[in-house]
Design brief:
The protein is of the alpha+beta class. Helices cover 41% and strands 24% of the residues. The N terminus is likely disordered.
Length: 412
């Protein structure tokens, strides 16, 4: 079992304050405090994020792409109270006005499933990005369900707290502009972009701000020309430091995608002051990022984004110099691939023991990677592109690996 990092919403709000982004930290209330103070502060809100504290009622299994069930559970909650709003969320505009995180807690990977043990605790964060959904959420919080029913098991809802405070897009745009010439993000779940029909797992400023601006232009009352702004971003924003890794994640029902996780620092060119309108929009989008996430598939757990660098803590509570990538949320797909590839390598090395040397090891690794990724639903074409191997070669290796595995199973 692997302990993974909490979402650190309080840290986000603190670092925003330190950098000049003014958020009212008093909004971080539990549902019980909401009952005392009332929900009037939700009035007119267009952005808000809540975190569920969950307990496993009985041990059960979920598939690697369990975010599909979280997605369905949320839409069903909306559908029960407001069928028209639910239809809008499911079938409406190209940009979805909500994001859903991955489960944050301990579990183990078995075959193509994850196991959640009775008594284990998890966090789940959901953000709303438009006024109608924030309004629905405020009403829903008055009488939330006692449990989150997912496929073959249930998670008891112990508590619900405000993770990111209710805000409007106008408030983000009108906020004071920090004087510093840099900002940074921690991408805590796999993050990627769609580019010309392919997945792009790179933190390029134009792609990052393109994803934020798409949400802004869909839900904010004031819109901006996309082409002009992104051309400006190319001139103004640059990557000044990063600590990232490439990872795999299973989303929806279509296999796995490649993304990146980690810390990225961005510099801001001095020429930013030559365009006050875009400078203000830039900082508004920086504040929007933790709400809307980054890149695609943010309603299935990808692209969870936090402002600043997440500090690594030792068991004594002291700061550690370990890389940030060592504590970010690990997806079930990553764990399955790591464990399955290691298992298959051992099997294939036994078959190829006569070859010996690096050749046998490389062949076993290639076969194991192809077969494991096929088991997660990846197409041969996607695997060929990822491994930079010709498609026909991957197809041939896949057949050889399957045949070898079957022969081994027969002997057992």
């Amino acid at each position: 079992m692997t302990k993974v990092l909490g979402f650190q919403g309080a840290f986000d709000l603190w670092i925003y304050y330190q950098r000049g982004y003014k958020f009212d930290i008093s909004y971080r209330l539990t549902t019980f405090e909401m009952g005392k103070k009332g929900l009037a502060k939700f009035d007119g809100a267009e952005l808000v994020a809540i975190t569920f504290e969950l307990d496993v009622m009985e041990t059960f299994f979920l598939p690697l792409n369990y975010n599909y069930y979280l997605h369905a559970w949320f839409l069903n909650q909306v559908r029960t109270d407001d069928p028209k709003l639910s239809a809008y969320l499911h079938d409406g505009q190209s940009e979805k006005p909500f994001t859903i995180s991955q489960l944050d807690g301990e579990f183990v990977t078995k075959s193509k499933q994850i196991q959640l043990f009775k008594g284990n605790k998890y966090n789940l964060t959901i953000a709303c990005l438009c006024e109608s959904l924030c309004k629905w959420l405020a009403k829903w919080l008055e009488n939330p369900p006692k449990a989150m029913v997912l496929s073959s098991g249930s998670l008891k809802i112990v508590n619900i707290k405000i993770e990111l405070p209710p805000k409007t897009y106008s408030q983000l745009l009108e906020a004071d502009i920090p004087s510093e010439r840099s900002f940074s993000f921690s991408f805590i779940t796999p993050t990627g972009f769609r580019r010309k029909g392919h997945h792009l797992p790179l933190p390029m400023p134009s792609n990052i701000f393109h994803s934020y601006l798409r949400r802004w232009n869909d839900f904010a009352p004031i819109t901006f020309d996309q082409e002009t702004f992104l051309a400006w971003i190319d001139e103004i924003i640059f990557v000044s430091n990063l600590d990232i890794v490439s990872v795999q994640a299973t989303v929806g029902k279509r296999g796995s995608v490649t993304g990146f996780k980690g810390f990225v620092e961005f510099g801001i060119d001095r020429k930013v002051q030559n365009n006050p309108e875009f400078e203000r929009l830039l900082h508004a989008l920086v504040m929007l990022a933790p709400y809307c996430g980054t890149g695609h598939k943010t309603t299935f757990g990808l692209g969870q984004t936090r402002y600043g660098k997440i500090e690594v803590k030792s068991s004594e509570g002291k700061e550690s110099l370990a890389p940030i990538t060592s504590v970010l949320i690990s997806s079930p797909t990553e764990r399955f691939l790591k464990e399955r590839i290691a298992e298959l390598i051992d099997i294939f090395l036994l078959i190829k023991k006569r070859q010996g040397g690096d050749r046998a090891k490389q062949t076993a690794l290639t076969w194991a990677t192809i077969l494991a990724r096929r088991e997660t639903g990846d197409s041969l074409q996607a695997i060929a592109e990822h491994l930079q191997i010709p498609y026909l070669t991957v197809k041939s290796y896949s057949k050889l690996a399957r045949r070898a595995l079957k022969e081994t199973e027969k002997k057992i």
